């Protein structure tokens, strides 16, 4: 390749990244030499695609267990769908699509076995040792646990992504004690960095004031909401857990509205949630009932496409109306989500919550999941580094105190897939051969 070809390629990449600076492309640990074939952000995305943490999401719960059926989404398929929605929306707004794509692919990496239930259990078990939060765990994976580079002093630099990609992956850009206070006076349990990760967090947020999310992080967050609000409903209908015609039954509708308000729209008048369901059910492609036939499944798939287009289109139009036609990147603008769109996305999430997450059938499963995680934490706490995988074994030996050692134990457990957590529990805690006793 000639010098002229190299200069042309570098110019092409620069043209594709309007608004991004050298600081945005910096890595925590400087790397010498740049690829003439790929931009810095394309390399970030490639590192995530090749990561073991991303592969493990294929066996982690999204809403229902990966073992429940062959159709239901896992954390991996959900992340791929979020990346597709986010990449397109971000590109239309002028964001580098690979930055948004990388953030979307990584947004659930920190989730432990058993979905949000597992996250809640581990947060309780960490107690005064800094808590557990899936998004803070994601940052920990990207910058420490999923290793590609090391600092000269031996510290891990994780995947060593660019500042822009890491900032885009920080969904809650604050530490635990900095979390915003909710209307009821309690502090949000969501946060983006543990105390022993504050050095890299400070580097990522260099020059950014307060809790402001980057534009790319806002696009990732919206894409996540859109994807799981639509796809969880699709999974629930396909698995026979509910039909959209249930909303035409007054008692059923009232329950869904109440769950939506309690879970996603506290303080919102129920009439406004009712109006959101009215608008959605008036859509031409609204599938009142699905019988599992090929034609019916096609109609269901078309409905999900229409809903994604509806939500993304409304957000794009509102954002462009507010900020004009120039490229919107990093901390130059805010994503604008119309109030009606917020209501409709929340209504879709409320549907899944009412018929899946709060189902009586799930309660024994949640209790069993708690038993598994509590048993593993207790066992690993009592046996020091005996059963830890080699990389976590070294972390345990390097830990400075009990709190740091407990964090290593939880890092190990959080890395497990659902099936691996069950296998460890039955083999190590109960001393029995593994069978899928949780779901079978």
Tell me what the structure shows:
- The protein has 440 residues and is an all-alpha fold.
- The protein folds into 3 domains: 3-204, Hypothetical protein af1432; 215-357, no CATH class; 362-429, no CATH class.
- The chain is 58% helix and 0% strand.
- The protein has helices at residues 3-15, 22-25, 40-49, 52-56, 75-93, 97-106, 115-126, 134-145, 163-169, 198-204, 215-238, 250-263, 270-281, 294-323, 339-357, 362-382, 390-398, 402-415, 418-429.
- Helix 9 crosses helix 11.
- The radius of gyration is 22 Å and the shape is globular.
- It starts with a helix and ends in an 11-residue tail after the last helix.
- The model is unreliable at 5-16 and 436-440 (pLDDT under 50).
Topology:
Elements: H1 3-15, H2 22-25, H3 40-49, H4 52-56, H5 75-93, H6 97-106, H7 115-126, H8 134-145, H9 163-169, H10 198-204, H11 215-238, H12 250-263, H13 270-281, H14 294-323, H15 339-357, H16 362-382, H17 390-398, H18 402-415, H19 418-429
Helix pairs in contact: 3-6, 5-6, 5-11, 5-14, 6-9, 6-11, 7-16, 9-11, 11-14, 11-15, 12-15, 13-15, 16-18, 16-19, 17-18
């Amino acid at each position: 390749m000639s010098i002229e070809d190299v200069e042309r390629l570098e110019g092409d990449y620069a043209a594709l990244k309007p608004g991004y600076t050298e600081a945005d492309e910096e890595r925590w640990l400087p790397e010498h030499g740049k690829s003439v074939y790929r931009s810095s952000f394309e390399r970030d995305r490639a590192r995530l695609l090749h990561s073991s943490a991303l592969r493990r999401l294929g066996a982690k719960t999204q809403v229902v267990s990966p073992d429940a059926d062959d159709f239901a989404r896992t954390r991996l398929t959900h992340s791929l769908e979020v990346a597709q929605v986010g990449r397109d929306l971000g590109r239309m707004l002028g964001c580098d699509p690979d930055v948004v794509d990388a953030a979307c692919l990584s947004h659930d990496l920190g989730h432990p076995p058993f979905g949000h239930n597992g996250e809640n259990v581990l947060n309780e078990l960490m107690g005064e040792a800094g808590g557990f939060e899936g998004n803070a765990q994601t940052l920990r994976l990207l910058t420490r646990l999923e290793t590609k580079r090391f600092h000269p002093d031996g510290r891990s630099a994780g995947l060593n992504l660019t500042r822009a990609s890491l900032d885009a992956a920080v969904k809650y850009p604050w530490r635990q004690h900095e979390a915003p206070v909710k209307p009821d006076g309690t502090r949000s349990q969501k946060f983006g960095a543990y105390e022993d990760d504050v050095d890299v967090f400070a580097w990522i947020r260099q020059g950014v004031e307060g809790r402001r999310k980057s534009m790319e992080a806002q696009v990732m967050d919206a894409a996540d909401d859109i994807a799981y609000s639509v796809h969880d409903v699709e999974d629930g209908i396909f698995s026979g857990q509910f039909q959209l015609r249930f909303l035409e039954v007054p008692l059923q509708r009232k329950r869904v509205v109440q769950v939506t308000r309690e879970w996603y729209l506290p303080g919102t008048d129920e009439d406004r949630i009712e109006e959101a369901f009215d608008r959605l059910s008036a859509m031409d492609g609204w599938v009142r009932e699905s019988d599992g036939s090929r034609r019916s499944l096609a109609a269901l798939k078309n409905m999900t496409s229409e809903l994604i287009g509806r939500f993304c289109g409304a957000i794009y139009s509102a954002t462009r109306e507010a900020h004009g036609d120039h490229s919107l990147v990093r901390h130059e603008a805010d994503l604008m989500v119309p109030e009606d769109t917020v209501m409709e996305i929340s209504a879709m999430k409320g549907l899944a919550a009412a018929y899946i997450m709060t189902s009586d059938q799930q309660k024994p499963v949640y209790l069993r999941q708690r038993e598994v995680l509590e048993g593993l934490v207790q066992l690993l706490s009592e046996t020091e580094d005996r059963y830890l995988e080699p990389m976590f074994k070294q972390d345990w030996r390097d830990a400075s105190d009990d709190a740091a050692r407990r964090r290593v134990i939880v890092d190990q457990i959080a890395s497990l897939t659902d099936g691996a957590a069950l296998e460890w529990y039955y083999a190590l805690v109960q001393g029995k051969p593994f069978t899928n006793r949780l779901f079978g």
